[in-house]
Amino acid sequence: MIDETVAEIRAMRTHSTSAVAVKATRALAELLDREYVTVDEFERDLEHNAGVLRRSNPSHAALHNAMRDVERSIIGEPTSVEDAKQLLEDTIDRVADDIETAKGEAAANAAERIEDGETLLVHDYSTTVLESIENAARDGAHLTVYVTEARPRTLGRKTARVLAGMSRVDVHMVVDSAMGYALRDCDRVLLGITCITGGTYYNRIGTFPLVVTARELGIPVTAVGSGAKTIEEFRFENEFRDAVEVMREPVEDVEIENPSYDATPIGMIDTVITDDGVVE
Questions:
Q1: Entry's SUPFAM superfamilies (predicted)?
Q2: Beta-carbon count within 10 A of 36 CB
Q3: Which of 26, 29, 88, 203 is most buried by its number of CB atoms within 10 A?
């Protein structure tokens, strides 16, 4: 389970950073079926596998925090292997529940800021953003949502399909380069969060030009996500994906760069909403 989860995270088959953190935490349950002679042996194996999972995506603050939380809650606490396994089982459930609860609370806080009749623009794929919109629509708001295609992986298409299944939500899709066209009809940009650290907001590629364009047009930008994605003393590492996502046929003397994330100064974001509240 751990090896499969690491491979899935590295391949970015799970698009939500919160979902990645939950999946990695649940994967540690594999240790419950292993045999250990001593508590020290168990703790070494836990530290090793938590580290492997954490390093599978060094850009995900939620994943980093989840693995650290598990380690801090267990290392040095149990007095027997049986106690260690029970503590791990309980900790896995608590950490996973905490992530889901925080995401839900952040979405609820964001939904309260979305007004009936608003037109939003969203980028890429964020389960917290989707939950925010769903909550607002369920509470009676009628919304228009523009979705960028989010190339090169076109995750905006997945977002659009989810939004299309929501009542009271009118969905429009545009290519990334049409963001300026779409923004002129929008009241707000609503984005997810990969990580906030050191005064920088990191999110999927395409976020920075979107934020710059929105500011130029006077459209407020809101970022919503779990507070666990705000982290100090964290070195964010961008990922560079396969060039084939950009160009299927290689071209001689052309180097294809395919970064996964954009870095945006946090001061360019008008509102940050987490489970801890709202910062403007």
A1: NagB/RpiA/CoA transferase-like
A2: 17
A3: 203
